[in-house]
Write a structure and sequence with these properties.
With 202 residues, this protein is of the alpha+beta class. The protein is built from 3 helices and 14 strands. The strands form 4 sheets. It has a 6-stranded mixed beta sheet, sandwiched between helices.
Length: 202
């Protein structure tokens, strides 16, 4: 389900629409059943059902490999990030919950639900039938717009993993890909090879 803000409006009307989208987002977030995610990406609200077991196995394996190589990093799941808005979305700030966020430990202390993305070193998304389109397009733009250095997209449907880096405006200038089952290098400041051989396919 998606609710969209219009592309262009006069300032006062845009502010009113912005407030209406925020109110709708808060209401849906409060009403969502346990395990469901409500995200706001490029002015649209997306309600995402709970992930299946294979999805969670991938997230767990990814988190475990990070722990084995970089014990100094925090590995965050169910962490809300606040992202810059877009003109097309009426400048409504994004609110997302990535599958995994890597950042120095202690980066997100405090009680807020959505955090500034400045400390983030990498976000990872694992696709599913309900999220794949957003993960491949809207979130790709949103994470680049936020200046997040690395975006790891694990595309189970395509059987590919892609690391995006060097964010510039609404895109990443660099990317590298590998089949799920191969290794892909995570450059500094991560500095290790991710072995996707243990990732279950869709």
């Amino acid at each position: 389900m998606a609710l969209a803000a219009p592309e262009r409006e006069p300032s006062a009307a845009a502010e009113e629409r912005h407030a209406a989208v925020e109110d709708a987002f808060e209401a849906l977030s409060a009403a969502a059943p346990e395990g469901w995610r409500v995200e706001l990406v490029e002015g649209e609200i997306h309600v995402v059902p709970p992930a299946n077991g294979d999805h969670e196995e991938v997230v767990s394996e990814l988190s475990g490999q990070v722990r084995d190589h970089r014990k100094d990093l925090g590995r965050y799941t169910n962490l809300g990030l606040r992202l810059p808005g877009t003109a097309a979305g009426g400048q409504v700030p994004g609110k997302v919950i990535p599958d995994l966020v890597l950042a120095p430990k202690g980066s997100f202390s405090g009680s807020g639900e959505y955090h500034d993305p400045d400390p983030v070193l990498l976000v990872a998304e694992v696709t599913s039938a309900s999220t794949g389109g957003n993960d491949r397009m809207k979130k790709l733009r949103a994470y680049a717009r936020a200046g997040i250095p690395h975006y790891l997209l694990i595309d189970r449907e395509a059987g590919r993993v892609t690391l995006y880096s060097d964010p510039r405006s609404e895109h990443y200038a660099r990317s590298s890909s590998a089949d799920i089952s191969a290794k892909i290098s995570l450059p500094d400041p991560l500095g290790f090879d991710l072995d996707t051989g243990q990732f279950p396919l869709a």
